[in-house]
Structure formats: structure tokens, C-alpha cells
Specification:
Number of strands: 10
Number of helices: 8
Radius of gyration: 19 Å
Order of helices and strands: EEEHHEEEEHEEEHHHHH
Strand order of the largest sheet: 1-9-8
Strand content: 15-25%
Largest sheet: 3 strands, antiparallel
Number of domains: 2
Helix content: 25-40%
Oligomer: single chain
Structural class: alpha+beta
Distance between the termini: 37 Å
Shape: globular
């Protein structure tokens, strides 16, 4: 059914879309959720809410190991009612809208990332997710995929999220098996900024994970740079895994 709702979208092809509280379907896409959160999503949400990553994870998410990769998968925990709504949605809309996850930002566009194994080059393709209930396609401005990406602030999200997709692809390709200790270390490096920073303060940054451009091996002050270090940390764990 989901595949039937996807329509290939040329990068330069215009599509019409707009969402507002005046639409009959307003907030319907925020219900019956099974929503994956990326590490960068969590950085933005926890900062917006004034929480530590550990507090955000405990209050709003569930974690399980991906069956194909063994990597931790973090999903948003819906509110415990029959329609399973997002915990951040209300009658007036999203209360974390400035920090909303990348999957919310990109909707109704679907971005697919392809990497050439021979050259390492990445290539984007796009599709439209045309859900029958959505009235956003009936009216609204015209967009291209690039215009939508820019308007929703997705460039920065994509930059960080693509790093996660590289790790997923590597783990899936090598069929890596992770033990409980490795899974815990990966979860800390990717999803718990404060915990990862504390660990680095105690253990230091191993030489293989130091800044690839050289310079002092200091713990990054910004959560974004810390996440980049976390990606290198996880890549190191995956290379060492059997």
C-alpha cells in the first residue's frame, strides 16, 4: 500500500502542497505513528525542550536493535490512546515545530539516497508520498524538491542524517553482529550527547578517532561536532566487529 502511494518526483518537477489548520486532515498525519528518530533529530528536540538526551530518551522514545544491522533504532513513543498520536501534537498543531524531526520536515517528499560503491559518490532521488487522506495537495504553493528542502531547513538535517545512513549501509553490507557491549557503546555515542561527553572526559579520545584535519584532540563543545565524533567512533566499532 505504501509503495502505491509513492510517485516518482523529478528534482525539477513542480508539485503543489500546503498544510494549515484549515484543512480537514490537519494533524491526521501525526497519529498512528511508528516514527524513527535520527541522532540529529534528538539533538534538536532535547535542546528545544530543555532536557538532557537521557531525559528525552526516557520520556519520549523506545529503543530496539535493528534486525538487519544490530544498530540501535530509536522511535518516538506515541501517546497511550487508541489513535496513538505524537506526544507533541495538540489541537493547534505541533508544539515542537521549530525542532520537529526530519521525517516531519520532509513530508510529503521522500528523499532516497544512493551511493556508488565504486566511486563513493552519493545521488539523491525523490518521490511524493500521496496519502489518500491528505488534502495538502489540493491547494498551496508550487514547489520543487530543492525548494521544499530549503524551505523546511533540511540541508543541515540531511548532512548529519546521511552520516547515519552510511553506518547503516556498512553494517548491513558486512552483516555485522554486535554484542550487548558494542550496542550500548553505539547507543551512547549516537544518542546520548551528555553521556558520551562524560565518557570522553574520563577515557579521552582514542588516536584513531581524533580530528581527521589534525589539531588538538579536545572534546567538541557543540553537540553537532560531538555527533560527528560519535559517527567516527561507531565506524571504528563496526570496523573492529567480526
Amino acid at each position: 500500500m505504501a509503495e502505491q502511494m509513492l510517485r516518482a518526483l523529478d528534482p525539477h518537477e513542480p508539485f503543489r502542497f500546503g498544510c494549515s489548520a484549515q484543512l480537514a486532515c490537519f494533524n491526521r498525519c501525526c497519529r498512528d505513528l511508528n516514527q524513527f528518530l535520527t541522532p540529529f533529530d534528538i539533538l534538536q528536540l532535547k535542546a528545544h525542550l530543555g532536557l538532557s538526551a537521557a531525559e528525552f530518551l526516557a520520556h519520549y522514545t523506545t529503543t530496539h536493535a535493528g534486525p538487519a544491522t544490530g544498530l540501535p533504532v530509536v522511535t518516538l513513543r506515541p501517546a497511550p490512546t487508541a489513535d496513538r498520536p505524537c506526544p507533541f501534537v495538540g489541537h493547534e498543531g505541533c508544539r515542537v515545530y521549530p525542532a520537529r524531526p526530519s521525517s516531519c520536515r520532509v513530508y510529503p517528499v521522500v528523499r532516497l539516497l544512493h551511493r556508488c560503491r565504486a566511486t563513493g559518490r552519493r545521488r539523491e532521488t525523490f518521490a511524493l508520498l500521496c496519502e489518500p487522506h491528505c488534502r495538502g495537495f489540493d491547494d498551496g504553493p508550487l514547489w520543487t524538491a530543492a525548494e521544499w528542502t530549503a524551505a523546511q531547513g533540511l540541508d543541515r538535517y540531511n548532512e548529519y542524517n546521511d552520516g547515519l545512513m552510511d553506518l547503516v549501509a556498512h553494517s548491513r553490507r558486512r552483516r555485522i553482529r554486535l554484542d550487548a557491549g558494542q550496542q550500548g557503546a553505539i547507543r551512547l555515542a549516537l544518542y546520548d550527547a551528555e553521556g558520551f561527553r562524560r565518557q570522553l572526559a574520563i577515557q579521552g579520545i582514542p588516536t584513531p578517532l581524533a580530528n581527521p584535519q589534525g589539531g588538538p584532540r579536545e572534546i567538541p563543545e557543540s553537540d553537532g561536532e560531538l555527533l560527528r565524533l560519535g559517527y567516527r567512533w561507531v565506524a571504528h566499532i563496526l570496523r573492529e566487529a567480526p
